[in-house]
Structures are given as C-alpha cells and as structure tokens.
Amino acid sequence: MLERQMKWNFTYKEADQMEKALDDMNISPTVKRLLQKRGIIAEAEIKRFLTPSLTDLYDPSMISGMEKSKERIMQAIETGESILVFGDYDADGVSATALLVEALRELGAMCDYYIPNRFTEGYGPNEEAFKEAKNQGFSLIITVDTGIAAIEPARVAGELGLDLIITDHHEVQEELPEAYAIIHPKCSKEYPFKELAGVGVAFKLAQYLLGYFPEQLLDFVVIGTIADLVPLVDENRILAYYGLKAITNSKRPGFQALKEVSGIKESVTEEDVGFLIGPRINAVGRLQTAYPAVELLLTEDIEEAHEIASNINQINQERKQIVEAIVQEAIAIVTENEEENKQVIVVAKAGWNQGVLGIVASKLVRTFQRPAICLTLDPEQNRAKGSARSIDAFDLFQNGMQCKELFHQFGGHAQAAGMTLPIENVDKLRARLNTLASEQLEQDDFKEQLHIDGELKLDEIDLSVIQEINQLAPFGMANPKPLFYVKAKVNEQRQIGTKKNHLKITFTDGFHQLPAVGFGMGEHFHAISKEAEVEIVGTLQVNEWNGKKSPQFMLQDIGVSEWQLFDYRGSNLWERQIQHLTEADTICVSFQSNSNTKCNLPVVSYKEWQGNFGEIQTRNMANLILLDLPSELQHLTEVLSQVEWKNIFTCYRLEQQHYMESLPSREDFKWFYSMLIKRGTFNQDTELLLLSKHKGWKKNKIDFIIQVFSELEFVKITNGVVEPNEQVKKRNLTESLHYQNSLKQSKIEQLLYYSNYRELKQWISSQIEQTSSIEEEKVYGL
C-alpha cells in the first residue's frame, strides 16, 4: 500500500451528470467533458473559448481613470515633461515596465523607468524614490503592477507637486491612495473583467494612448500574465493565447537571447513562460536590482542581449542554490517546532535572502501541506520581512487583514502575500494565524487538492487525444491543465536525475504501455512493488525523442490501495531494498530458533510474537519482513492475519540443499532397498560418493533414504555401515516422522519459496481474506 499525498477530487463524475448540451457540436467526447466541467456549455461560450479572438477583448475606455490619465500623459508629451514609469521587480512588473516605456517612446515621450531595490527600499512606491524623481526633474509618475496600497507615498507625491497615475491589479484595501488617477479593473464598475495582470492593465493603457491595438506589445503581455498566475480565462486567455504566438515569433533581441539560454527551441508554451522564462526574470530582482531584466527586454542590440541573458541565467543558478539552502534550514526549524506551526507555518531567521522567500514558502507549503510564511530578520532595524504562500482553503489576504495591526506593510492575494512587521510581532502573528486556521479548516483542507477531470484507460491514450486536450490551452490558473486518473500495473521503474530524486515508471495493461515521469518522486521507487496495481493522477504531454513523438504521463500523485508484496526471496541484497523503512512501523519476524539472518530493524521470534501480540498490535505496524520459512504454515497465517499489513517483504533464502530437490520418490526408495538386499551392506563413509555419482543423486538424498529406513527399522546402522534387518514388518513410508516432516517442509518450500510472484501473493491474500471473513462472521453473529 502506498498512501496518496494529496486529496483526489473526482469532479468528472459530477460533470457526467450535467445536461448534454454539447451533443450537436462537432467536439470530441474528451473535450466535451472538459468544457462541461469548466461550466462552458453554451455554443457561443464554447466557440469563444476554443477559438480565442482579439475582437473579444474589451474596450480599455471602460476602465475608470483611463481618459483622465490619457489627457495628462498627452499633455506631458506635448510640453516635453519627463515621465517616470515606476515598476515592480517581479516578472509581471518588469514586463509591464518595458511595455509602457516602449509605448510611451513610440508616442515621443521623454520617459525613463524606475524599479525599487527589494533589499534597500522594499515593495512598492516609497517617499525617498519620489523625492529623488522630483529632484531629477520628473513631474509625472505612472506606476505599473504596484501602488494601490501606497497611501503615504501618494500623499508625499502630492506634496511634492508630482502627478501620480497608479495602474495596478493587486487587491484593493480599505483606503485608496490620493492619486491623480487610478487605473485598476477592480475599481471600475463598468469594466467586465477584474483579473488582468499588472502587465495587462499596462497594455490597456498603452492601447488607449496609442489609439490602435498594439499587437507588437503582446510578447511583453504574455510574460506577466502567465508568470503572475492570474486566471487564464476571458481576456487573460486571449492575451496569453496570442502572446505565446507573439513571443514565439518575436524579433526582439532580448526575447531571442532569453529563449536561447532557457533552452527553448520551438514554439513557446505557457509552461516555458511559467517555468523557464518567468523564473529567470524574477531571479534578477530576487538577488539584486531588476534593471538588467528591463534592459534585456528593451535592448535592440543582439550582442548586449546575449550578454545580459547569460548573466541572468547565472543569477538564476545562484538563486536555486540559495533557495535550497534556506529550504533545508526552514524545514529544520519547522520540525523542531512542530506544535507551534501546526496549522500555519511562520519561520524567521536573520540572514535569509528576502528575495527568494516566496519560493521557499511555496516549497514549505508543498512539503508540510499547510500555509507558510518565511521572514528574514533585521535586528538593527527591528524588522521582519518576507513572503507567504497558502493552500486553497486558507485565504492569506483576508486572514492577514484580520491581523493588520501587527504589520508595518501587508498586501497580496488569497494565495500569496508580502509583509513587513516588527520582530516582536512574529510570534504574535504565528499564534493569531494558527488560531484563525484552526477555526476555519478541517484536516482534509490541509491536503493539496487535485481536481481530476477524467479517467483514461491505457488503450485510450494516444497523440490524437493529447491534441484534442490542447485545444483548451493555454493552461493556467482557473483553466488548469486537465488531470486524469489512470489505473494500471507497473511494468518497470527506475530512479533518474543526478540525485536519483525523480521517478521514471512504465505502466501496462498487458497490451499497451504508458511511460510516466514523477519529478521529486524518486523516494517512491522502493515503495512500489513488482506488478502492483497503481493508481495515478497527472497530465498528458507529448514526448519527443530522436524525432519520434509519443504520449507521456506527468505524475502529480500516486497511490496503491491494496497491500503490496515485495519479493526478495533468495536475494543477498534484500537489506538494501528496505533501507527506507523505519522502526516506527516495521517489524521483522523469524520462525526458526537457529536462524542466522540479521536485520537492522526490530526482530521478534514467532514465540515472542505469540506472547506479545497485543503490544505489537497497538504499535500500528504497517510493514512485515519475513526473515525465514515457518515450520508450520499456520504460524505464518497467524502473523499475516492478526495485523492489517500494508506491505509484506519476503526476504528469506535457503542456505542448504532444498528438500524439494532431495526428497526421493517411492521408486528411489525401492531401488536403494533392492540394492542393499543384493549387496548385504552399504558403507556410508566409503560408498556414499560412488553411489551419488552412479545415480546422480545428491548426498543428502541418500542420507534421507537411510534415515527413513532406519526409523522404520528396515535397516540397522553400525559404525556407518548399513545392513538390512532380517525380520522386517511391512510399513508405509508415511509412518516415518522424518519422512512426514520432510514432506511437509517440502510443501512449505514449494508454496513459499519456489512459487512465482503471483502464486505467492494469491496465497497470502487468501490467508488474509479467510481470516477477515471469519472475523466478520463473529462480528455479525453468523
């Protein structure tokens, strides 16, 4: 048995019961089910979803503050005022900054850009930056992807005589800044779509300023729209769809260099932006100033682009190393203080790089299955600063706002937030959030949720199915890549990666095969037995190798619902295969008093088992290791049936010649006795080897015949010389206890040692089921 790590929600079973409104449309059953599950059932909605069109985008003039902002910006351009684009240091802010700068320059504006330093200035607009902008002669500041929470900086801008236009998409707080204008979808009642990314809002402003639809800016739009994890529906879906085409074909030197260092050679996908391009742009602002990222997107020099892209790639590698080091430290802190972080993790330490704490928090959420806040401490300024990530069931923004008096600064979304607070408030924050979570969440809420879109058989999975599914791309928030449930047997598996931390596994139904990859699942290698029937959830993708394309399954979670047999019979290396087991839930059982088999885990003899069964049963044992063969099958049946084992390991081997090989037939007994009558004597010391060669018998087979005859008094043995008794009573061979025991042991070996895997598992299952059936009869009084 292998426990699932996540909660599986079979939502497709609900979708199957929906009205069959798509029957008349020329859509495959798979796509039809996926659309139904997303609530897309009207013909017009379906066409708009499957064939995104730029004409379906909304008029930017519907956003409040747009006209007022245009008038002020055009005035600044006409009068030669200096305009400052004030951005953010993440991929959304960087792409929004580059986009608006390019649009303003096209209009002839005198403009520059400014992105605050994460380490010295923190997030968002700040008073010192505004004062410096004033000193440098700027009179108009336009924020992108930031500013909606900048209450005090906006007031200072007014006092300085700076006109401030805020464009943002983050959650609106109780008070709005006093700005010249605010362009924010959630502040615009008439605007139909509220979930644009920061770069999406900047694009709308650029479109309105330019007076036409600027397709040339779509390559900027797709970066922030996908990297910032906004819902890829409605306008975001259209912008991402056409943005991916734009970035694929982009002639900008910066984009070409960025794709090259990211290893992207063909069409750019949403996964390329989310996992390759976005992280590299983010890495710059996480470790230093984000200016190189903006310069890369705006440069027109191919050599400069390659140089910047190469530096950014190196920074990203450094970022990965820093993240890994902090993750290990954070895990150690949580482990040592498990009770304090039972519902919500809040970890803090001086010296942590605040730029990567959002990534660290995400990894902690995945590791511990609960919301996590990671903070770096600055004792000199008495300040804790960092980022938070959450689970689906816990709204970080809403719960954070309930603790707002603890923060200097706080902002973000339901699943991600940033904050600054006094160091003395860190413990208070942890206590408050843990209390709030305990009041709101059930145990199942902490498990990562997998919403499964459908079930597939192996014979249904081919390239055409993947092509059908990809009609719903680009995938992302609110339009996730479809998850499928598959049940099949393991054909082969191996650990891959330099650290052997990934799993490569092939499933089969006897006729078809499906290769699968599980990143970070290498530890499951020892937890999945040969021929186990495995349940998996994941996504489908096309794998291309040497020009040949084939389906591949990307694992999200894996489980085995039945008990598993791990067959290491006869192996000298079985101890290597059980190194992942622990004393907490594992026990080794030995049936032979003279057993020489050693094990590093707790070992009990069968007699100890009988005497301490109650204590063993209360220890919640899950793994049983059988070190040797029983002398009675009933002894093994008792051990198998008295505990609900999840995994059984057969690790025994036969050191001596096997009874099954040496047990003589009745004809063998007759031949030996006839030979003895003719010869009169048989010297075991001098003639045993000669007889062994003559008949091709093992020596222990000859010894066995002699011992049985001696027990039945057919012969007498004096100083190793065997002679027939003159007066012999007729007796059956089965009257010999030695013969009976050997016959019984031979049957045990044949059943438990020489049987194949399926035969052995079937027998063990029959013992477990038989006992379970008897227990049920007792319970129900039958």
TrEMBL record:
<dbReference type="InterPro" id="IPR051673">
    <property type="entry name" value="SSDNA_exonuclease_RecJ"/>
</dbReference>
<dbReference type="Pfam" id="PF10141">
    <property type="entry name" value="ssDNA-exonuc_C"/>
</dbReference>
<comment type="similarity">
    <text>Belongs to the RecJ family.</text>
</comment>
<dbReference type="Pfam" id="PF02272">
    <property type="entry name" value="DHHA1"/>
</dbReference>
<dbReference type="InterPro" id="IPR038763">
    <property type="entry name" value="DHH_sf"/>
</dbReference>
<protein>
    <recommendedName>
        <fullName>Single-stranded-DNA-specific exonuclease RecJ</fullName>
    </recommendedName>
</protein>
<feature type="domain" description="Single-stranded-DNA-specific exonuclease RecJ C-terminal">
    <location>
        <begin position="564"/>
        <end position="764"/>
    </location>
</feature>
<dbReference type="InterPro" id="IPR041122">
    <property type="entry name" value="RecJ_OB"/>
</dbReference>
<dbReference type="GO" id="GO:0006310">
    <property type="term" value="P:DNA recombination"/>
</dbReference>
<feature type="domain" description="DHHA1">
    <location>
        <begin position="341"/>
        <end position="438"/>
    </location>
</feature>
<dbReference type="InterPro" id="IPR004610">
    <property type="entry name" value="RecJ"/>
</dbReference>
<dbReference type="GO" id="GO:0006281">
    <property type="term" value="P:DNA repair"/>
</dbReference>
<dbReference type="InterPro" id="IPR003156">
    <property type="entry name" value="DHHA1_dom"/>
</dbReference>
<dbReference type="InterPro" id="IPR001667">
    <property type="entry name" value="DDH_dom"/>
</dbReference>
<dbReference type="Pfam" id="PF17768">
    <property type="entry name" value="RecJ_OB"/>
</dbReference>
<dbReference type="GO" id="GO:0008409">
    <property type="term" value="F:5'-3' exonuclease activity"/>
</dbReference>
<feature type="domain" description="RecJ OB">
    <location>
        <begin position="452"/>
        <end position="557"/>
    </location>
</feature>
<keyword id="KW-0378">Hydrolase</keyword>
<dbReference type="InterPro" id="IPR018779">
    <property type="entry name" value="RecJ_C"/>
</dbReference>
<feature type="domain" description="DDH">
    <location>
        <begin position="82"/>
        <end position="225"/>
    </location>
</feature>
<dbReference type="GO" id="GO:0003676">
    <property type="term" value="F:nucleic acid binding"/>
</dbReference>
<dbReference type="Pfam" id="PF01368">
    <property type="entry name" value="DHH"/>
</dbReference>
<keyword id="KW-0269">Exonuclease</keyword>
<keyword id="KW-0540">Nuclease</keyword>
